[in-house]
Amino acid sequence: MAPREIERPRFGVLNGLSHVALAVWALLIVAPLLWTFLASFKSNAEIFGDPLQLPGALRLDAWGRAWDTAHIGRYMLNTVIVVLFGTAGTMVFGSMAAYVLARYRFPGSRLIYYYFVAGLAFPVFLALGPLFFVVKQVGLLNSHVGLVLVYVAYSLPFTVFFLAAFFRTLPEAVAEAAQIDGASHTRTFFQIMVPMARPGLISITIFNVLGQWNQYLLPLVLLAGDPDKWVLTQGIARISTLAGYEADWPGLFAALSITILPVMIVYIIFQRQIQSGLGSGALK
Amino acid sequence: MERLRRYGFVAGFLAVPLVLYTVFVISPYVQAFQLALTSWNGYSSIVRYVGLDNFGRLFQDEVFWRALRNHGILLLVLPLVTILIALVFAFLLNLGGGTRGAGMKGVWGSNFYRTVFFFPQVLAVAVVGVLFQAVYRPDEDGVINGVLARFGVDPVGWLIEPDLALWSIIAVMVWQAVGFYVVLFSAGMAAIPKDYFEAAALDGANRLRLFFSITLPLLRDTVQVGWIYLGIAAFDGFALIQVLAGDKGEPDGATTILPITIYNTAFSYQKVGYASAMGVALFFLTVTFAVLTLRTTRRERVEL
Protein backbone atom coordinates (compact mmCIF):
# COMPACT_ATOMS: atom_id res chain seq x y z
CA MET A 1 0.00 0.00 0.00
CA ALA A 2 1.44 3.28 -1.09
CA PRO A 3 1.26 6.03 1.50
CA ARG A 4 -1.27 8.62 0.41
CA GLU A 5 0.44 11.42 2.14
CA ILE A 6 4.00 11.52 3.28
CA GLU A 7 4.14 13.31 6.61
CA ARG A 8 7.67 14.44 6.27
CA PRO A 9 8.64 17.11 8.77
CA ARG A 10 11.12 19.47 7.18
CA PHE A 11 14.23 20.22 9.09
CA GLY A 12 15.64 22.48 6.46
CA VAL A 13 17.88 25.43 7.19
CA LEU A 14 15.02 27.83 6.49
CA ASN A 15 12.76 26.06 8.96
CA GLY A 16 15.42 26.23 11.63
CA LEU A 17 16.03 29.90 10.99
CA SER A 18 12.31 30.69 11.19
CA HIS A 19 12.06 29.09 14.60
CA VAL A 20 15.13 30.91 15.83
CA ALA A 21 13.74 34.25 14.64
CA LEU A 22 10.34 33.65 16.24
CA ALA A 23 11.84 32.44 19.49
CA VAL A 24 14.22 35.40 19.71
CA TRP A 25 11.37 37.89 19.23
CA ALA A 26 9.26 36.09 21.85
CA LEU A 27 12.20 36.28 24.24
CA LEU A 28 12.63 40.00 23.52
CA ILE A 29 9.04 40.53 24.60
CA VAL A 30 8.95 38.26 27.62
CA ALA A 31 12.38 39.13 29.06
CA PRO A 32 11.79 42.78 30.06
CA LEU A 33 8.39 41.89 31.55
CA LEU A 34 9.77 38.97 33.48
CA TRP A 35 12.71 41.04 34.64
CA THR A 36 10.35 43.74 35.95
CA PHE A 37 8.26 41.19 37.79
CA LEU A 38 11.33 39.59 39.39
CA ALA A 39 12.86 42.98 40.23
CA SER A 40 9.81 43.81 42.38
CA PHE A 41 10.95 41.07 44.78
CA LYS A 42 14.58 42.15 44.80
CA SER A 43 16.34 44.51 47.14
CA ASN A 44 17.91 47.71 45.85
CA ALA A 45 21.34 46.08 45.97
CA GLU A 46 20.16 43.10 43.94
CA ILE A 47 18.56 45.34 41.31
CA PHE A 48 21.85 47.15 40.90
CA GLY A 49 23.72 43.89 40.83
CA ASP A 50 23.78 41.35 38.06
CA PRO A 51 20.57 41.81 36.05
CA LEU A 52 20.35 38.09 35.29
CA GLN A 53 20.27 37.10 38.94
CA LEU A 54 17.10 35.85 40.65
CA PRO A 55 15.88 37.60 43.81
CA GLY A 56 17.56 36.19 46.92
CA ALA A 57 14.32 36.04 48.90
CA LEU A 58 10.65 36.50 48.18
CA ARG A 59 10.20 40.05 49.48
CA LEU A 60 6.68 41.34 49.29
CA ASP A 61 7.22 44.67 51.06
CA ALA A 62 7.72 46.59 47.81
CA TRP A 63 4.24 45.56 46.69
CA GLY A 64 2.81 46.91 49.92
CA ARG A 65 4.72 50.19 49.54
CA ALA A 66 3.59 50.59 45.94
CA TRP A 67 0.00 50.08 47.03
CA ASP A 68 0.05 52.35 50.13
CA THR A 69 2.72 55.03 49.86
CA ALA A 70 2.84 55.34 46.10
CA HIS A 71 -0.98 55.34 45.87
CA ILE A 72 -1.02 52.86 43.02
CA GLY A 73 -4.35 51.60 44.38
CA ARG A 74 -5.89 55.04 44.13
CA TYR A 75 -4.56 55.57 40.61
CA MET A 76 -6.01 52.25 39.61
CA LEU A 77 -9.39 53.07 41.13
CA ASN A 78 -9.40 56.45 39.35
CA THR A 79 -8.58 54.77 36.05
CA VAL A 80 -11.29 52.14 36.49
CA ILE A 81 -13.89 54.85 37.25
CA VAL A 82 -12.87 57.05 34.33
CA VAL A 83 -12.64 54.19 31.82
CA LEU A 84 -15.91 52.63 33.05
CA PHE A 85 -17.92 55.80 32.60
CA GLY A 86 -15.94 56.91 29.56
CA THR A 87 -16.52 53.69 27.65
CA ALA A 88 -20.14 53.38 28.80
CA GLY A 89 -20.84 56.94 27.65
CA THR A 90 -19.02 56.39 24.38
CA MET A 91 -20.99 53.23 23.65
CA VAL A 92 -24.40 54.68 24.54
CA PHE A 93 -24.02 57.97 22.67
CA GLY A 94 -21.87 56.55 19.88
CA SER A 95 -24.29 53.73 19.06
CA MET A 96 -27.29 56.07 19.27
CA ALA A 97 -25.75 58.55 16.85
CA ALA A 98 -24.43 55.81 14.55
CA TYR A 99 -27.82 54.08 14.44
CA VAL A 100 -29.74 57.23 13.54
CA LEU A 101 -27.17 58.24 10.93
CA ALA A 102 -27.05 54.77 9.39
CA ARG A 103 -30.76 53.92 9.26
CA TYR A 104 -32.73 57.17 9.05
CA ARG A 105 -32.85 59.52 6.09
CA PHE A 106 -33.46 63.14 7.02
CA PRO A 107 -32.20 66.48 5.73
CA GLY A 108 -28.56 66.86 6.71
CA SER A 109 -27.98 63.24 7.75
CA ARG A 110 -25.00 62.81 5.42
CA LEU A 111 -23.60 66.12 6.55
CA ILE A 112 -23.79 65.19 10.24
CA TYR A 113 -22.19 61.82 9.48
CA TYR A 114 -19.22 63.48 7.77
CA TYR A 115 -19.07 66.05 10.54
CA PHE A 116 -18.41 63.21 13.01
CA VAL A 117 -16.02 61.30 10.77
CA ALA A 118 -13.98 64.46 10.04
CA GLY A 119 -12.73 64.24 13.63
CA LEU A 120 -10.58 61.26 12.58
CA ALA A 121 -8.42 63.49 10.40
CA PHE A 122 -7.20 65.83 13.13
CA PRO A 123 -4.32 65.04 15.49
CA VAL A 124 -5.27 65.54 19.16
CA PHE A 125 -2.21 67.76 19.51
CA LEU A 126 -3.76 70.45 17.42
CA ALA A 127 -6.62 70.81 19.89
CA LEU A 128 -4.58 70.44 23.07
CA GLY A 129 -4.09 74.10 24.01
CA PRO A 130 -7.63 75.29 23.23
CA LEU A 131 -9.13 72.13 24.78
CA PHE A 132 -7.50 73.00 28.09
CA PHE A 133 -9.22 76.40 28.06
CA VAL A 134 -12.59 74.99 26.93
CA VAL A 135 -12.60 72.52 29.83
CA LYS A 136 -11.48 75.27 32.19
CA GLN A 137 -14.31 77.55 31.03
CA VAL A 138 -16.99 74.96 31.70
CA GLY A 139 -15.44 74.50 35.15
CA LEU A 140 -14.48 70.84 34.72
CA LEU A 141 -10.69 71.14 34.91
CA ASN A 142 -9.13 68.65 37.34
CA SER A 143 -12.33 66.64 37.57
CA HIS A 144 -13.14 63.11 36.50
CA VAL A 145 -16.42 64.30 35.00
CA GLY A 146 -14.53 66.59 32.65
CA LEU A 147 -12.08 63.86 31.65
CA VAL A 148 -14.92 61.39 31.03
CA LEU A 149 -16.79 63.87 28.81
CA VAL A 150 -13.60 64.59 26.85
CA TYR A 151 -12.91 60.83 26.45
CA VAL A 152 -16.44 60.30 25.15
CA ALA A 153 -16.16 63.23 22.74
CA TYR A 154 -12.82 62.09 21.31
CA SER A 155 -13.92 58.45 21.03
CA LEU A 156 -17.06 59.39 19.08
CA PRO A 157 -15.60 59.83 15.56
CA PHE A 158 -14.21 56.31 15.29
CA THR A 159 -17.11 54.72 17.20
CA VAL A 160 -19.71 56.40 14.98
CA PHE A 161 -17.74 55.56 11.85
CA PHE A 162 -17.37 51.90 12.81
CA LEU A 163 -20.88 51.33 14.17
CA ALA A 164 -22.67 53.18 11.35
CA ALA A 165 -21.02 50.77 8.91
CA PHE A 166 -22.12 47.91 11.14
CA PHE A 167 -25.76 49.03 11.52
CA ARG A 168 -26.04 49.38 7.74
CA THR A 169 -25.29 45.69 7.29
CA LEU A 170 -28.15 44.58 9.55
CA PRO A 171 -31.35 43.42 7.78
CA GLU A 172 -34.29 45.83 7.49
CA ALA A 173 -37.03 43.25 7.95
CA VAL A 174 -36.76 42.67 11.70
CA ALA A 175 -36.91 46.37 12.58
CA GLU A 176 -39.87 46.87 10.23
CA ALA A 177 -41.76 43.96 11.76
CA ALA A 178 -41.23 45.44 15.22
CA GLN A 179 -42.54 48.80 14.07
CA ILE A 180 -45.64 47.22 12.56
CA ASP A 181 -46.24 45.52 15.90
CA GLY A 182 -46.32 48.99 17.41
CA ALA A 183 -42.83 49.26 18.96
CA SER A 184 -41.58 52.83 19.25
CA HIS A 185 -38.36 53.91 17.53
CA THR A 186 -36.55 53.98 20.86
CA ARG A 187 -37.80 50.55 21.81
CA THR A 188 -36.86 49.10 18.42
CA PHE A 189 -33.35 50.40 18.93
CA PHE A 190 -32.77 49.08 22.43
CA GLN A 191 -34.64 45.78 22.19
CA ILE A 192 -34.06 44.74 18.58
CA MET A 193 -31.12 46.55 17.02
CA VAL A 194 -28.66 46.61 19.93
CA PRO A 195 -28.86 42.83 20.51
CA MET A 196 -28.44 42.25 16.76
CA ALA A 197 -25.39 44.49 16.65
CA ARG A 198 -23.67 42.70 19.54
CA PRO A 199 -20.54 41.48 17.71
CA GLY A 200 -19.80 44.98 16.43
CA LEU A 201 -20.53 46.53 19.81
CA ILE A 202 -18.17 44.11 21.58
CA SER A 203 -15.31 44.83 19.17
CA ILE A 204 -15.61 48.57 19.50
CA THR A 205 -16.07 48.38 23.29
CA ILE A 206 -12.77 46.53 23.61
CA PHE A 207 -11.16 49.06 21.31
CA ASN A 208 -12.41 51.96 23.44
CA VAL A 209 -11.56 50.36 26.80
CA LEU A 210 -7.96 49.78 25.69
CA GLY A 211 -7.65 53.23 24.17
CA GLN A 212 -9.00 55.01 27.24
CA TRP A 213 -7.13 52.79 29.71
CA ASN A 214 -3.85 53.64 27.99
CA GLN A 215 -4.55 57.34 27.46
CA TYR A 216 -1.76 59.51 28.81
CA LEU A 217 -1.87 62.85 27.05
CA LEU A 218 -5.42 64.00 27.89
CA PRO A 219 -5.21 63.31 31.65
CA LEU A 220 -1.75 64.87 31.69
CA VAL A 221 -3.23 68.15 30.50
CA LEU A 222 -6.68 68.03 32.10
CA LEU A 223 -5.89 66.63 35.57
CA ALA A 224 -2.49 68.26 36.07
CA GLY A 225 -3.59 70.30 39.09
CA ASP A 226 -4.91 67.52 41.33
CA PRO A 227 -2.63 64.51 41.88
CA ASP A 228 -5.35 62.74 43.90
CA LYS A 229 -7.37 62.33 40.73
CA TRP A 230 -4.56 61.06 38.52
CA VAL A 231 -4.93 57.93 36.42
CA LEU A 232 -2.56 54.98 36.30
CA THR A 233 -0.45 56.12 33.36
CA GLN A 234 0.22 59.49 35.02
CA GLY A 235 0.85 57.77 38.35
CA ILE A 236 3.41 55.40 36.87
CA ALA A 237 5.27 58.26 35.21
CA ARG A 238 5.34 60.08 38.55
CA ILE A 239 6.42 57.04 40.57
CA SER A 240 9.18 56.57 38.04
CA THR A 241 10.41 60.12 38.64
CA LEU A 242 10.12 59.77 42.41
CA ALA A 243 11.94 56.44 42.43
CA GLY A 244 14.97 58.33 41.18
CA TYR A 245 14.95 60.61 44.25
CA GLU A 246 13.89 58.14 46.90
CA ALA A 247 15.93 55.27 45.50
CA ASP A 248 12.98 52.91 45.91
CA TRP A 249 13.51 50.83 42.80
CA PRO A 250 11.75 47.68 44.04
CA GLY A 251 8.73 49.91 44.73
CA LEU A 252 8.78 51.16 41.15
CA PHE A 253 8.92 47.66 39.72
CA ALA A 254 6.20 46.48 42.07
CA ALA A 255 4.04 49.39 40.89
CA LEU A 256 4.78 48.44 37.27
CA SER A 257 3.90 44.81 37.98
CA ILE A 258 0.63 45.84 39.65
CA THR A 259 -0.26 47.83 36.51
CA ILE A 260 0.76 45.14 34.05
CA LEU A 261 -0.71 42.06 35.78
CA PRO A 262 -4.45 42.86 35.50
CA VAL A 263 -3.99 43.85 31.86
CA MET A 264 -2.16 40.58 31.25
CA ILE A 265 -4.88 38.50 32.90
CA VAL A 266 -7.64 40.24 30.93
CA TYR A 267 -5.59 39.80 27.77
CA ILE A 268 -5.04 36.09 28.29
CA ILE A 269 -8.76 35.53 28.89
CA PHE A 270 -10.04 37.70 26.04
CA GLN A 271 -7.11 37.52 23.61
CA ARG A 272 -9.20 36.33 20.65
CA GLN A 273 -11.75 39.11 21.07
CA ILE A 274 -9.05 41.72 21.74
CA GLN A 275 -7.06 40.78 18.66
CA SER A 276 -10.11 40.76 16.42
CA GLY A 277 -11.50 43.89 18.07
CA LEU A 278 -8.37 45.90 17.40
CA GLY A 279 -7.80 44.26 14.03
CA SER A 280 -11.32 44.78 12.70
CA GLY A 281 -10.98 48.46 13.50
CA ALA A 282 -8.10 48.63 11.06
CA LEU A 283 -9.64 46.48 8.35
CA LYS A 284 -13.01 48.20 8.09
CA MET B 1 -47.84 62.52 13.58
CA GLU B 2 -45.54 59.60 12.74
CA ARG B 3 -43.29 62.02 10.86
CA LEU B 4 -43.07 64.25 13.90
CA ARG B 5 -42.31 61.34 16.18
CA ARG B 6 -39.62 60.19 13.78
CA TYR B 7 -37.89 63.56 13.78
CA GLY B 8 -38.27 63.82 17.53
CA PHE B 9 -36.54 60.46 17.88
CA VAL B 10 -33.71 61.40 15.52
CA ALA B 11 -33.15 64.72 17.30
CA GLY B 12 -33.28 63.06 20.70
CA PHE B 13 -30.66 60.49 19.76
CA LEU B 14 -28.32 62.98 18.14
CA ALA B 15 -28.51 65.88 20.61
CA VAL B 16 -26.08 64.77 23.32
CA PRO B 17 -23.39 63.28 21.05
CA LEU B 18 -23.49 66.34 18.80
CA VAL B 19 -23.16 68.79 21.69
CA LEU B 20 -20.30 66.87 23.34
CA TYR B 21 -18.47 66.48 20.06
CA THR B 22 -18.93 70.12 19.05
CA VAL B 23 -17.86 71.55 22.40
CA PHE B 24 -14.86 69.33 23.15
CA VAL B 25 -13.57 68.33 19.71
CA ILE B 26 -14.64 70.70 16.96
CA SER B 27 -14.49 73.97 18.88
CA PRO B 28 -10.89 73.41 20.09
CA TYR B 29 -9.83 72.56 16.54
CA VAL B 30 -11.46 75.69 15.14
CA GLN B 31 -9.91 77.77 17.91
CA ALA B 32 -6.51 76.24 17.18
CA PHE B 33 -6.61 77.48 13.61
CA GLN B 34 -7.71 80.89 14.89
CA LEU B 35 -5.10 81.05 17.67
CA ALA B 36 -2.37 80.14 15.19
CA LEU B 37 -2.77 83.67 13.86
CA THR B 38 -2.34 85.31 17.28
CA SER B 39 0.39 85.83 19.82
CA TRP B 40 -1.84 84.81 22.76
CA ASN B 41 -0.03 83.68 25.88
CA GLY B 42 -2.85 81.69 27.47
CA TYR B 43 -3.97 84.08 30.20
CA SER B 44 -4.00 87.70 29.02
CA SER B 45 -7.40 89.08 28.06
CA ILE B 46 -6.01 90.81 24.99
CA VAL B 47 -5.65 88.58 21.95
CA ARG B 48 -3.46 90.21 19.33
CA TYR B 49 -3.65 89.01 15.75
CA VAL B 50 -0.26 88.73 14.10
CA GLY B 51 -1.32 87.25 10.80
CA LEU B 52 1.08 84.65 9.47
CA ASP B 53 3.98 85.83 11.66
CA ASN B 54 3.94 82.60 13.67
CA PHE B 55 4.46 80.56 10.54
CA GLY B 56 7.29 82.85 9.43
CA ARG B 57 8.90 82.30 12.82
CA LEU B 58 8.53 78.54 12.46
CA PHE B 59 10.82 78.59 9.45
CA GLN B 60 13.61 80.17 11.50
CA ASP B 61 13.04 78.09 14.63
CA GLU B 62 15.88 75.65 15.06
CA VAL B 63 13.94 73.50 17.53
CA PHE B 64 11.07 73.20 15.06
CA TRP B 65 13.37 72.02 12.29
CA ARG B 66 15.07 69.50 14.54
CA ALA B 67 11.67 68.20 15.62
CA LEU B 68 10.63 68.03 11.99
CA ARG B 69 13.77 66.13 11.01
CA ASN B 70 13.30 63.58 13.79
CA HIS B 71 9.69 63.29 12.78
CA GLY B 72 10.74 62.55 9.22
CA ILE B 73 13.10 59.79 10.37
CA LEU B 74 10.37 58.33 12.57
CA LEU B 75 7.84 58.50 9.74
CA LEU B 76 10.13 56.61 7.40
CA VAL B 77 11.86 54.10 9.66
CA LEU B 78 9.02 53.08 11.99
CA PRO B 79 6.60 51.84 9.28
CA LEU B 80 9.36 50.31 7.17
CA VAL B 81 10.97 48.23 9.92
CA THR B 82 7.71 47.28 11.63
CA ILE B 83 5.98 46.18 8.44
CA LEU B 84 9.02 44.23 7.29
CA ILE B 85 9.34 42.28 10.55
CA ALA B 86 5.57 41.80 10.83
CA LEU B 87 5.26 40.52 7.26
CA VAL B 88 7.96 37.93 7.75
CA PHE B 89 6.50 36.76 11.07
CA ALA B 90 2.95 36.70 9.72
CA PHE B 91 4.12 34.60 6.80
CA LEU B 92 5.96 32.15 9.05
CA LEU B 93 3.04 31.90 11.47
CA ASN B 94 0.41 31.33 8.81
CA LEU B 95 2.09 29.65 5.88
CA GLY B 96 5.64 28.91 6.99
CA GLY B 97 4.89 25.28 7.85
CA GLY B 98 5.00 24.36 4.20
CA THR B 99 2.49 22.24 2.33
CA ARG B 100 1.72 19.36 4.59
CA GLY B 101 -1.48 17.42 4.13
CA ALA B 102 -4.29 19.58 2.82
CA GLY B 103 -3.14 23.15 2.47
CA MET B 104 -0.70 25.48 4.13
CA LYS B 105 0.04 25.62 7.80
CA GLY B 106 1.88 27.89 10.12
CA VAL B 107 5.02 26.75 11.86
CA TRP B 108 4.75 24.78 15.06
CA GLY B 109 3.56 26.86 18.01
CA SER B 110 2.16 29.72 15.93
CA ASN B 111 -0.71 30.40 18.32
CA PHE B 112 1.66 30.83 21.22
CA TYR B 113 3.87 33.21 19.24
CA ARG B 114 0.91 35.27 18.05
CA THR B 115 -0.35 35.67 21.62
CA VAL B 116 3.05 36.71 22.95
CA PHE B 117 3.84 39.07 20.08
CA PHE B 118 0.55 40.93 20.44
CA PHE B 119 0.78 41.50 24.18
CA PRO B 120 2.85 44.75 24.20
CA GLN B 121 0.06 46.31 22.19
CA VAL B 122 -2.29 46.26 25.20
CA LEU B 123 0.26 47.88 27.53
CA ALA B 124 -0.01 51.62 28.07
CA VAL B 125 2.74 53.55 26.32
CA ALA B 126 3.62 55.29 29.59
CA VAL B 127 4.13 51.88 31.24
CA VAL B 128 6.29 50.72 28.33
CA GLY B 129 8.33 53.89 28.70
CA VAL B 130 9.06 53.31 32.38
CA LEU B 131 9.85 49.66 31.65
CA PHE B 132 12.42 50.54 29.00
CA GLN B 133 14.05 53.12 31.23
CA ALA B 134 15.27 50.17 33.26
CA VAL B 135 16.14 48.16 30.17
CA TYR B 136 18.17 51.01 28.69
CA ARG B 137 19.95 52.19 31.84
CA PRO B 138 23.33 53.56 30.75
CA ASP B 139 25.42 51.79 33.43
CA GLU B 140 26.00 48.10 33.92
CA ASP B 141 22.78 47.79 35.95
CA GLY B 142 20.66 48.20 32.87
CA VAL B 143 19.16 45.01 31.51
CA ILE B 144 20.85 45.25 28.12
CA ASN B 145 24.13 46.60 29.42
CA GLY B 146 24.20 43.98 32.14
CA VAL B 147 23.92 41.25 29.55
CA LEU B 148 26.51 42.97 27.37
CA ALA B 149 28.87 43.18 30.35
CA ARG B 150 28.86 39.39 30.55
CA PHE B 151 30.36 39.34 27.09
CA GLY B 152 32.88 41.96 28.08
CA VAL B 153 31.25 44.80 26.17
CA ASP B 154 31.40 48.26 27.73
CA PRO B 155 28.07 49.82 28.76
CA VAL B 156 26.34 51.74 25.99
CA GLY B 157 24.48 54.99 26.68
CA TRP B 158 21.35 53.95 24.81
CA LEU B 159 19.38 57.05 25.70
CA ILE B 160 22.30 59.41 26.37
CA GLU B 161 24.26 59.29 23.14
CA PRO B 162 22.69 61.91 20.87
CA ASP B 163 23.26 59.75 17.80
CA LEU B 164 21.77 56.69 19.39
CA ALA B 165 18.85 57.95 21.49
CA LEU B 166 16.29 58.34 18.72
CA TRP B 167 17.07 54.87 17.37
CA SER B 168 16.69 53.34 20.82
CA ILE B 169 13.27 54.94 21.09
CA ILE B 170 12.25 53.78 17.62
CA ALA B 171 13.27 50.26 18.64
CA VAL B 172 10.80 50.43 21.54
CA MET B 173 8.04 51.59 19.20
CA VAL B 174 8.78 48.70 16.86
CA TRP B 175 8.85 46.32 19.85
CA GLN B 176 5.37 47.42 20.79
CA ALA B 177 3.85 47.62 17.31
CA VAL B 178 5.00 44.44 15.55
CA GLY B 179 2.43 42.12 17.19
CA PHE B 180 -0.50 44.19 16.04
CA TYR B 181 0.64 44.09 12.43
CA VAL B 182 1.33 40.37 12.63
CA VAL B 183 -2.34 39.93 13.53
CA LEU B 184 -3.44 42.41 10.87
CA PHE B 185 -1.42 40.73 8.11
CA SER B 186 -2.46 37.28 9.32
CA ALA B 187 -6.09 38.28 8.73
CA GLY B 188 -5.10 39.44 5.26
CA MET B 189 -3.27 36.20 4.53
CA ALA B 190 -6.19 34.12 5.73
CA ALA B 191 -8.26 35.76 2.98
CA ILE B 192 -5.93 34.47 0.24
CA PRO B 193 -7.37 31.24 -1.24
CA LYS B 194 -5.31 28.24 -0.21
CA ASP B 195 -5.30 26.69 -3.68
CA TYR B 196 -3.06 29.50 -4.93
CA PHE B 197 -0.32 28.27 -2.65
CA GLU B 198 -0.99 24.64 -3.33
CA ALA B 199 -0.87 25.15 -7.07
CA ALA B 200 2.37 27.10 -6.80
CA ALA B 201 3.87 24.54 -4.43
CA LEU B 202 2.96 21.73 -6.82
CA ASP B 203 4.79 23.64 -9.53
CA GLY B 204 7.82 23.54 -7.29
CA ALA B 205 7.85 27.03 -5.79
CA ASN B 206 9.70 27.17 -2.50
CA ARG B 207 8.63 29.22 0.49
CA LEU B 208 10.62 32.31 -0.43
CA ARG B 209 9.04 32.25 -3.86
CA LEU B 210 5.55 31.81 -2.36
CA PHE B 211 6.14 34.84 -0.15
CA PHE B 212 7.33 37.19 -2.87
CA SER B 213 5.15 36.00 -5.75
CA ILE B 214 1.84 35.31 -4.04
CA THR B 215 1.58 36.65 -0.49
CA LEU B 216 3.10 40.06 -1.00
CA PRO B 217 1.21 41.12 -4.15
CA LEU B 218 -2.12 39.95 -2.75
CA LEU B 219 -1.54 41.69 0.57
CA ARG B 220 -0.93 45.12 -0.92
CA ASP B 221 -4.10 46.78 0.43
CA THR B 222 -3.57 45.51 3.96
CA VAL B 223 0.05 46.66 3.94
CA GLN B 224 -1.08 50.07 2.75
CA VAL B 225 -3.54 50.38 5.64
CA GLY B 226 -0.78 49.31 7.99
CA TRP B 227 1.57 51.93 6.61
CA ILE B 228 -0.92 54.75 7.22
CA TYR B 229 -1.67 53.51 10.73
CA LEU B 230 2.02 53.45 11.58
CA GLY B 231 2.52 56.89 10.11
CA ILE B 232 -0.16 58.19 12.45
CA ALA B 233 1.35 56.20 15.33
CA ALA B 234 4.62 58.02 14.65
CA PHE B 235 2.80 61.27 15.35
CA ASP B 236 1.59 59.79 18.62
CA GLY B 237 5.09 59.00 19.86
CA PHE B 238 4.65 61.69 22.48
CA ALA B 239 4.03 59.58 25.59
CA LEU B 240 6.99 57.30 24.97
CA ILE B 241 9.46 60.06 24.24
CA GLN B 242 8.21 62.16 27.14
CA VAL B 243 8.72 59.30 29.59
CA LEU B 244 11.95 57.98 28.09
CA ALA B 245 13.66 61.19 27.09
CA GLY B 246 12.05 63.82 29.28
CA ASP B 247 10.14 67.00 28.47
CA LYS B 248 12.80 68.49 26.25
CA GLY B 249 13.58 65.42 24.20
CA GLU B 250 16.94 64.75 25.84
CA PRO B 251 19.79 64.59 25.08
CA ASP B 252 19.74 68.19 23.92
CA GLY B 253 16.70 67.94 21.69
CA ALA B 254 18.12 64.94 19.83
CA THR B 255 14.88 63.02 20.30
CA THR B 256 12.36 65.83 20.24
CA ILE B 257 9.42 65.41 17.91
CA LEU B 258 6.71 67.92 17.01
CA PRO B 259 4.13 66.89 19.65
CA ILE B 260 6.75 67.32 22.39
CA THR B 261 7.67 70.75 21.08
CA ILE B 262 4.00 71.76 20.87
CA TYR B 263 3.30 70.59 24.42
CA ASN B 264 6.26 72.52 25.83
CA THR B 265 5.58 75.66 23.84
CA ALA B 266 1.98 75.76 25.03
CA PHE B 267 2.24 74.61 28.64
CA SER B 268 5.83 75.36 29.71
CA TYR B 269 6.51 78.55 27.77
CA GLN B 270 2.88 79.78 27.64
CA LYS B 271 3.11 80.59 23.95
CA VAL B 272 -0.32 79.27 23.04
CA GLY B 273 -0.56 81.11 19.73
CA TYR B 274 2.81 79.87 18.53
CA ALA B 275 2.07 76.32 19.70
CA SER B 276 -1.19 76.39 17.75
CA ALA B 277 0.73 77.37 14.62
CA MET B 278 2.93 74.31 15.15
CA GLY B 279 -0.23 72.23 15.58
CA VAL B 280 -1.60 73.52 12.30
CA ALA B 281 1.71 72.67 10.61
CA LEU B 282 1.49 69.19 12.14
CA PHE B 283 -2.06 68.81 10.84
CA PHE B 284 -1.05 69.63 7.29
CA LEU B 285 1.88 67.23 7.59
CA THR B 286 -0.46 64.43 8.65
CA VAL B 287 -2.81 65.08 5.77
CA THR B 288 0.07 65.31 3.29
CA PHE B 289 1.49 62.07 4.61
CA ALA B 290 -1.83 60.24 4.25
CA VAL B 291 -2.46 61.59 0.75
CA LEU B 292 1.09 60.85 -0.41
CA THR B 293 0.92 57.32 0.95
CA LEU B 294 -2.36 56.63 -0.79
CA ARG B 295 -1.04 58.14 -4.02
CA THR B 296 2.30 56.39 -4.22
CA THR B 297 1.05 52.99 -3.14
CA ARG B 298 -2.01 53.06 -5.38
CA ARG B 299 -1.42 50.88 -8.38
CA GLU B 300 -3.57 48.47 -10.25
CA ARG B 301 -5.01 46.12 -7.68
CA VAL B 302 -4.55 42.42 -8.05
CA GLU B 303 -8.04 41.00 -8.35
CA LEU B 304 -8.74 37.77 -6.56
Structure description:
The complex is a heterodimer of chains A (284) and B (304). Chain A is an all-alpha fold. Chain A has a single domain, classed as MetI-like (MetI-like fold). Helices cover 75% and strands 0% of the residues of chain A. Chain A has helices at 13-39, 44-47, 61-68, 72-103, 109-118, 124-137, 144-169, 172-180, 185-196, 198-213, 217-222, 232-246, 249-283. The longest helix of chain A is centred in the last third of the chain and has 35 residues, at 249-283. The radius of gyration of chain A is 25 Å and the shape is globular. The N and C termini of chain A lie far apart (51 Å). Residues 1-11 of chain A have low confidence and may be disordered. Chain B is an all-alpha fold. Chain B has one domain (62-297): MetI-like (MetI-like fold, Orthogonal Bundle), CATH 1.10.3720. Chain B has helices spanning 2-35, 53-60, 62-95, 110-118, 125-135, 143-150, 162-190, 194-202, 207-218, 220-235, 238-245, 258-267, 272-297. In chain B, helix 3 packs parallel to helix 7. The termini of chain B are far apart. Mean pLDDT of chain B is 82; it is low at 300-304. Chains A and B meet through helix 1, helix 4, helix 5, helix 6 and helix 7 of A and helix 1, helix 3, helix 4, helix 5 and helix 6 of B.
